[in-house]
Design goal:
The longest helix has 21 residues. By secondary structure, the protein is mainly α. It has one domain: Fido-like domain (Fic-like fold), CATH 1.10.3290.10. The protein has eight helices and no strands. InterPro entries: Fido, Fido-like_dom_sf, Fido_containing, Mobile_mystery_prot_B. This is Mobile mystery protein B.
Length: 195
């Protein structure tokens, strides 16, 4: 498998690439199609689920496994390697627990309006970057689950569909908003999510 990652995507290291369950995949387009099919299957599972709280570490990992487990053998497992983004791999469980506890506090105490809580939750999830691949897609879906389950709020219109790669202008705005949030300015991300 030899392809160029889009802007904002995290490159996989050789060991992570070995986790691909389909040896015939050689292009980014083929991989995107395979992952999208897995995501659509997982969204069906989500619509039928009974229980499971997105503010629980085990459910965060289960969601990732459902979204990408048909494609990657390591889906649902925290990354073990350093990346160009994200916390040290040894800090992932601690940082994620802090985020989930914060998000639960925000929801229970109505600290933020729903879309601001969503923007902050999403940004921090992406910033932690718990998995080797699929963090943005996972974080967008997790954010929508949090909005629905904890705020009774409709999902965010991230893009027309789940594929930000197909909407380059929207993707550029999204990456720019995340980078602004990394620098301490949450306003572009609030604008992006409609808050």
């Amino acid at each position: 498998m030899n392809f160029v990652e889009p802007d904002g995507a995290t490159p996989l290291d050789p060991d992570e690439r070995l986790g691909l369950k389909f040896s015939h995949i050689t292009t980014r387009g083929e991989l995107d199609e395979l992952e999208q099919a897995n995501i659509e299957q997982a969204l069906g599972w989500l619509s039928r689920r009974r229980g499971g709280d997105i503010l629980d570490d085990a459910f965060v990992r289960k969601l990732h496994k459902r979204l990408f487990g048909e494609v990657w053998s390591w889906a649902g497992e925290y990354r073990q390697s350093e990346k160009n983004i994200g916390v040290d791999p040894l800090q992932i469980p601690v940082q994620l627990r802090m985020l989930l506890d914060d998000a639960r506090f925000w929801a229970e105490n109505r600290t933020y309006v729903p879309l601001e809580a969503a923007a902050r939750f999403h940004h921090r999830m992406v910033q932690i970057h718990p998995f080797a691949n699929g963090n943005g897609r996972h974080a967008r879906i997790a954010t929508d689950i949090m909005l629905e389950d904890h705020y009774k709020h409709p999902p965010i219109l991230w893009v027309s569909g789940l594929d930000l790669l197909a909407d380059s202008n929207r993707r550029t705005s999204y990456i720019s908003a995340l980078r602004a949030a990394d620098a301490g300015d949450i306003m572009p991300l609030l604008d992006f999510v409609g808050g």
